[in-house]
Amino acid sequence: MSKRDLNFEAYRKSIQSLENFKKPTAVVIFGASGDLAKKEIYPNLFWLYKDSLLPENTIIIGYGRTNLDIKKYLKETIIQKVNLDNDDLKIYDEFIEKNHYITGNYNEEPKFKELDSKINELMVDPNQNIQDCNRVFYLAVPPKVYPNISEMVGKNCRAKEPFLTHLVAEKPFGKDLETSNELSKSISRYFKEEEIFRIDHYLGKEMVQSLIALRFANQIFRRVWNRDSIESVFINFKENFGTKGRAGYFDEYGIIRDVIQNHLLQVLTLIAMEQPLSESADDIRDEKVKVLKSIKAIKLDDVVLGQYAKNENGTPEQQKGYIDDEGVDKDSLTATYAIIILHINNERWDGVPFIISAGKALDETISEVRIQFNQVPANIFKNYCRRNELVIRIQPNEAVYLTMLTKRPGMDFVVEETDLDLTYAEKYKGLYVPKAYERLFMNIIYGSQISFVRSDELTEAWRIFTPVLHEIEEKKIKPIYYQFGSNSIPEAENLIMTKGKYSFERFCRL
């Protein structure tokens, strides 16, 4: 039995009992020849098919402007992503046969009528009668074409009741509050809120999913999860590579829009929210919105921006700075690194700074939350005043650990720091940790919105960030340069330790 089977068997049985598992389903991928479809969508659909987690009768239709032989394309490209054993090749061939493709523009109504006809043509019951089906429309395309596609699908391709229509939208969902609201308005003309699945793939990650259980299922944390015990919260995201050819996209959005305003802010809401009334999607999202409404708009004084420059002594990749990437203007002021301090104006978190940090071309790739507790009052161990710290590592190597002080074994009395460590690879040996897109696809197909962003969440998130983003652009704030491979920026560390109240010191002398 494979690693996947070890923790999918019970889940598979629960899925196969769902009404939607028995309903035929069509998955339509707009932008089927693009990078996202090749790297994430098709490979993860294959794994779900292999594990018998897709509905019994599922078809997949790619739609794009590029003329494509989809079966040949999948056989030549996606197979490299799924890394199959010989025993799986037959299953892969079966999956390939479920795929189809239509070439067309995104505002071409006759082509969307053709798409609707194609779905009907492929969806026949055992008696060869045409039947309708649940329909999932995945927008793996730039947001500028979302309005056209949503209109064309809404007018021509919706499922007929009692079957369901789901529209999946990838980030970035706008560039500021105004453009986000315009985008939401254009889509909501044709789709209800419960039909729209705004993907933030961070919400599908194992450790992000675990945050709710960690917070609300453990009495030990419930009592200390507030300003009386916590000094600061540090959400840190690092990548040890640059833009890697994504400069055309990245230079338009920058690190704040690309990572902080969506991924890391979502993590913050799960860390900071009050206990929801239940595990339901709307109850959880209600509490996330309450947190966002309590966050003050960011001030420029609480921000440090950086941009990576070449490291002449580094690896060949590190010897190229951001402006050396193809498509980046030599005078670009786009930030590839940012530190932001946020403040939550409510009873639980008043006075506790939330530090969000994200950067490319740094010394390592890691994403984690570090919750630093207050100093011990009247500490009798004068040489050791290290704060306790709860660390939740999202990636890589998922883990939760608590740093604490104990006496070192021996005749002497020496206090040293140690960890209470839950590393998933050690605790859950042999179990497969699902990838974010696998989990999110399951939620989309079976109708759970627990890991997706609601429109009011999006509005509040942009309210927090839009003023400072506009100020940065209007004042042409110049980022601080840092060498490719740096740990951070001195100015950022100063902000973290002063306004952020975060201590980098492992031990400090009194």
Q: pLDDT average, as an integer?
A: 89
Q: Indicate the radius of gyration in whole angstroms.
A: 25 Å
Specify the overall morphology.
Answer: globular
The unreliable regions are 506-510
User: What's the helical proportion of residues?
Assistant: 25-40%
Strand arrangement within the widest β-sheet reads 14-13-12-11-7-10-9-8-15
CATH superfamily of the largest domain: Dihydrodipicolinate Reductase, domain 2
- Tell me the CATH architecture of the largest domain: 2-Layer Sandwich
Number of strands: 15
Report strand %.
15-25%
**Main beta sheet strand tally, sense and closure:** 9 strands, mixed
- Kindly identify the CATH topology of the largest domain: Dihydrodipicolinate Reductase, domain 2
Which CATH class of the largest domain is shown? Alpha Beta
- Cα distance, first to last residue? 56 Å
Q: How many independent structural domains?
A: 2
Instruction: State the helix count.
Output: 16
Structural class: alpha/beta
